[in-house]
Design goal:
Blueprint: H1 2-6, H2 11-29, H3 39-72, H4 77-116, H5 129-132, E1 135-140, E2 145-150
Antiparallel strand pairs: 1-2
Helix pairs in contact: 3-4
Length: 157
């Protein structure tokens, strides 16, 4: 067994290793096209970083949704009182699910985002409610999109 580990590489193996190293170096040093777009990678990283903040702000978003519903819907006072607590719990679960889906979509878009960084192509969002929903904080910086506190109940456009 030890003899196998200590045997020198064959001439062909050395050539393959050398060519693979040159190819890897060429990819690292290759100039990036001026039209390359980092938007998929930016969205992926933003989703992974902002999803925990969505989870934390979920109860506040639920209260905002309920308050907005009270102002815009013509329900009886009794139904508003009776359905407040179950509605709050349901909306908290919905916001939790939305933030989990946002995290998962960020992880799934990471590798395609890194690959597409060197091309003109872009990937459509895997989880569109993150892009469409209203949020407490929505600031699009050059490197990262700061968007959290998303209302996942009103995201269809």
């Amino acid at each position: 067994m030890e003899d196998l580990l200590l045997t020198p590489l064959s001439h062909q193996s050395r050539i393959r290793s050398f060519v693979a190293a040159l190819l890897a170096l060429g990819l690292l040093l290759a100039p990036v096209s001026a039209q390359a777009t980092p938007s998929t990678l930016k969205r992926s990283v933003s989703n992974m970083l902002m999803a925990p903040l969505d989870l934390v702000t979920g109860p506040a978003v639920a209260v905002r949704i309920i308050d907005n519903g009270y102002k815009t819907q013509d329900d009886s006072t009794l139904s508003k009182v009776v359905w407040t607590v179950p509605g709050f719990l349901f909306l908290c679960l919905l916001e939790t699910g939305g933030s989990v889906m946002r995290e998962v979509s960020g992880v799934l878009e990471l590798v395609p985002g890194a690959v597409l960084l060197f091309s003109k192509s872009d990937l459509r969002p895997l989880y569109a409610p993150t892009e469409n929903g209203a949020a407490f904080v929505d600031f699009d910086a050059k490197v990262l999109r700061l968007k959290f506190g998303i209302d996942y109940t009103n995201t269809i456009k």
